[in-house]
From TrEMBL:
Protein function: Catalyzes the condensation of isopentenyl diphosphate (IPP) with allylic pyrophosphates generating different type of terpenoids.
Cofactor(s), names only, from the UniProt record: Mg(2+)
Protein's organism: Campylobacter subantarcticus LMG 24374
NCBIfam families assigned to the protein according to its UniProt record, in alphabetical order: uppS (TIGR00055)
Protein name per the record: Isoprenyl transferase
Positions with a binding annotation for Mg(2+): D12, E190
Entry similarity comment: Belongs to the UPP synthase family.
Gene name linked to the record: ispU
Enzyme class: transferase
The record's free-text note on cofactor binding: Binds 2 magnesium ions per subunit.
Length: 222
């Protein structure tokens, strides 16, 4: 059976779930934040080392000012309310993306969260914020050049925001695209598309998806 070390999740469908249920779109995002806890619990049960969640893309900055402000308000609330839970469960937190675009308050909270949990190795939750894979690769290449290193796959991967390869790439919300998420790290990832809108995702479905992944034949092109 395949070993699942790194699960990547595109958390799509929050707004559609809210509209489908006759609710404000903001409630869809709030409900989606609760599902994050379920995914983390499953990852701990399955002894997964890395969980990477696509929270806010570089393209999302183009959404309305009101929506962007709400999303970052929700992020700040999550950072405030989740720190003690991460510490008690010995889970590490890491933010990836072009963090230079974030406001000072959010950035300070992220830095504090990372510092408080950096020693834990049970599970690392990587939150992709202001993240785009093409942007990440460009920034990595610039780092390699600045360090006067040879431009090759090993050095580029070592200078990415996240160097761990993805084993299972999960996209919920019915869309069948990867949306500029972990393109380098997912070069040989198994991909699973779920019709479920993110706020409706259950622990049972997550576990079933992982079980299917473990049965898949992975050849890595060999």
């Amino acid at each position: 059976m395949n070993e699942l070390k790194h699960l990547a999740v595109v958390m799509d469908g929050n707004r559609r779930w809210a509209r489908k249920n006759g609710l404000l779109e903001k409630i869809g995002y709030s409900q989606g934040a609760k599902v994050v806890e379920k995914i983390i619990e499953v990852c701990m049960d399955e002894k997964i080392q890395n969980l990477t969640l696509y929270a806010f893309s570089t393209e999302n900055w183009q959404r309305s000012k009101e929506e962007v402000e709400f999303l970052f308000k929700l992020l700040n609330k999550y950072l405030d309310e989740s720190l003690n839970k991460f510490i008690s469960n010995k889970v590490r937190f890491k933010a990836i993306g072009n963090l230079s675009l974030l406001d000072e308050l959010t950035l300070k909270k992220i830095q504090n969260f990372q510092e408080q949990t950096k020693k834990y190795t049970k599970l690392c939750v990587n939150l992709a914020i202001s993240y785009g894979s093409k942007d990440e690769i460009v920034r990595a290449v610039k780092k390699v050049i600045e360090k006067n290193l040879e431009i090759n796959e090993v050095n580029i991967q070592a200078n990415l925001d996240l160097s761990e390869d993805v084993d299972l790439f999960l996209r919920v919300g019915s869309a069948k695209r990867i949306s500029n998420f972990l393109l380098w790290q997912s070069s040989y990832a198994e991909i699973y598309f779920s019709q479920t809108l993110f706020p409706a995702l259950t622990k049972k479905e997550i576990a079933n998806i992982i079980a299917e992944f473990k049965k898949r034949k992975r050849t890595f092109g060999k």
